[in-house]
Every structure is written in structure tokens, then in C-alpha cells.
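Minutes, structural biology subgroup

Action item carried over from last meeting: produce the C-alpha cell record for CCD62 protein (Haliaeetus albicilla). EB confirmed the sequence was re-checked against the source entry. Recorded below for completeness.
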Amino acid sequence: STIQKQRRELQLLIAELKDRDKELNDMVAVHQRHLLAWEDDRQKILTLAERCNLLKNELNKRNEIVKSLTKRLKFLESQQNDSKTIENTPQKFKELSQKVTDATVHCQALEEKNQSLHCLVLELSAKTGQLQAREQELLTMLKLKDEAILETTDHITDFTSKFKKLESALRAAKTEEFSLNKEKEDLKLRLKELILETNKLKDDLCEKMKENNKQQEEIIHLKQENSCLRNELALIVEKAKRKDQLLQFAKSKQARTDTELSSLRQV
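Output recorded by EB:
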């Protein structure tokens, strides 16, 4: 019963370990998906950061161009103020003004785009931080699950060794049970033989008791006869003693008679 109970416990533990293993596999799969998504997001962030750097460089170049054009415009304005006699200056001034305006509009557009990209970079950085924190959390959970798996593996190894020991003990117990059953059968046969022998001895004892009762009756009868014979013997002895006494009396009487006769003869 103990071995069966431990076997049921081992089966329950193995089922629980299978469930834990399935949960760990699911968590690892989810972790892999999160890692892949994080890697995609990281690649996108790197691409956007590279693009943002390129746009910043372009913006800086455009700013330099705007600054140079502004300086040139100021220089031209100063030249225009100094030399009003030049015919082509208004046309060039208009062209430069148009270029400056276009450059200013393009610079504002680039600044707005840069601002949006900067906001996007900040958002992606925050998302990257969240993903890194989630990755760290998942790595921590994975480490804990690995430790749990190792601990569970150790438990499985211990239970396997215990189960092997219990199986060997079960085999030994079965062997001992088989030998005990065989010995039990032998003892049953011996018990049957002893019961038969006991019954036979009882029958013999009954017969002996009957013979003993008969012998006791005979002994009682013989004792009674012996007592009767002793009484008769005592009577015979007493009669013999009386006869001897009578004989002695007769002898003494005969002696007296012979003495008297001899005395009479002498007379």
C-alpha cells in the first residue's frame, strides 16, 4: 500500500511537472515572440535614429545655407544701399529674397519634421526602455523558471531514484511474498498432515483410554481379588497358627501322657 501510494504521488508529480513544462514552453515561446518584436522595434528605432541624424545633418546644412544666404542678403542689401546705380540689383535682390523665403519655409518644414522625429525618437526611446524593462523582467522570470526547472529536475531525479529503490524493494517484497506464500502452502500442507496425525493420535488416544479404562477396571478387580486373597491368606495363616498351637497342645499333652505312662510303668 505504501508503494502504491508513493507511485500515485509520483504520477501526480510527473503530471504536475508536465504541466509546469508546458507552461514554461509557452512562456519561452511568448518570450521569444517578445524578443523578436523588441528586435524589430529596435531595428526600426535604429533606422529612425539614423534617419533622424541624416535629417539633422541636412537641417544643419540648410541652416548653414540659410545663414550664408542671410549674410549674403545683408551684404547685398548693404551693397544696394551703397550702390543704387546697379541695374540688376533689384532683380537679384528679389531672387535672393525668394530663395531666402523658400529656404526659410523649407527650414521651418525641416524643423517641424525634426521636432516630430524628435518626439518620435523620444517615444521610441521610452518604448525601448519599457521593452528593455520587460525584457529584463522576462529574463528574470526565465531565470526563475530555469531555477524551478533545475529544482524540479533534481526532484524528478530524487523521485526517480526513490522510485527505482521502491521498485527494487517491491521486487524483493514480491519475491519474499512468493517465498512466504510457498512457505505458507507448505505450512498448510504440514498443518493438514499434523491435523490428520492429530486426529489419528486422538483416535489412538481414545482407544488407549478405552484400554486404560479396561485395564483400570481389571486392576480394580485384581485389587479386589488380591484383597480377598489376602484376607483368605490371613485366615489360612491364622488357621495354620491355630493348628500349630493345637499340635503343640497335642504334643505337650502327649508328652504328659507319656510321662504319666512311664511313671505308671515304673509304679
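Discussion: The chain has a mean pLDDT of 81.
Next step: EB to file the record with the rest of the batch.
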